[in-house]
Amino acid sequence: MKTMVSEEKMQKVSFELNGEFVELNQLLKLVGLCDSGGAGKMLVASGDVKVDGKQELRKTAKIRAGQLVTVGDIRISVDPV
């Protein structure tokens, strides 16, 4: 059974995007959720990563400014520089 995490308890992380996009597995590494891009791919494959509220299973999905990535109780906002 999955439990919902309330908005107030979510940890918010901001990521400043230099360029057009960042691959999802690399984003997870760059914000410190994983030690490597490979570990990021495994995390995505586990089904625990959401992009804009929808489960994302594409390990190298292109994440662009304005998107929200959620992993458990951590919300990553991708902001333009």
From TrEMBL:
Key word RNA-binding present: yes
Domain of life of the organism encoding this protein: Bacteria
SUPFAM superfamilies, per database record: Alpha-L RNA-binding motif
InterPro entries found in the cross-reference section: S4_RNA-bd_sf
Pfam families, per the entry: S4_2
GO molecular function: RNA binding
Coiled-coil portions: none
Keywords linked to the UniProt accession: RNA-binding
Listed PROSITE patterns: S4 (PS50889)
Protein name (record): Ribosome-associated protein
Organism of provenance: Duganella phyllosphaerae
